[in-house]
Task: structure prediction
Amino acid sequence: MPGYPGGRYIVGEVERLSDGRVRLKVGTLYGVLDRLVADGLVELDREEVAQGRLRRYFRLTEAGTRVLTAEAERLATNARLATGRLSAVRP
Amino acid sequence: MTSELERRYRALLRMLPADYRAAWEDEMVATFLESTARDDPEEAEFAAGFGRPSWPEVASVLALAVRLRLGGTGAGPRRRACGDAVRLVALMGLLAQAVLAVLGLGTLLWLAGKLPGTPPPPQPDLQPGRWEALGVLLECAAVPAYVALPVGAGLSAVLVVFDVLDIWPLIDLAALYCLALVGAALVHLVAGPTSRPGRWRSLWRRWSCSACGW
Result:
């Protein structure tokens, strides 16, 4: 899996994917990132210095990919169930 | 050149433990400055000179600092011990509250002449008032809160609701227990079950055994 760009990219992607509803704060982002790294779900891909500033690039580990796949399937199942129920009550 | 905005953000990050800052500070600063960058040169210049981290940014760093200092994921043994101490104080406060609540309920039933196996009170005019009775019943929320503590999920809501109820003016020692409960809720929300699900449970078991022995 290709390494994702660092924090700025993640903040921007979260905002874009949520249509601006979620604006990730930097403290929140790194609080999550260091937990994911500690749990072995995400790992450091590489570090670069650009314009005098440190940039770290992260990527999902195999374990992270498994957990994410399972969670996405769980949510998709819930959504399918809810959609099925809704179509049953709709006229 | 370091801008005033960067200096202020670095000052904010001093809330975080030194070892965490050594690992993450530069990157957090870079991400913060990039995510708050303005396209308009005048706005960018103004932000660099006079900008401050927003309150949500401050809150996110504060929450991270609490989690790291109270033994969340990645914390060293010293901070884990500190976090356990805070959790233990919260547990003791909550258990004391639960015991007092049960005693209060027993007294209430006795005064009302409805406690099985005991004679009614010698002075029937000692009947508790409606508000007093309600206060005791509300205080009984400590019992499910204490029992639910090791279960983890959904507990924060119980603690917070209980904490609100505990402001009840008729309850003695409310301030002390409020402090313990606010601590419990805070630790639970920030550093608790999501990162280390077993921590509350093992402390709860140990403390409950000690309390029973005592």
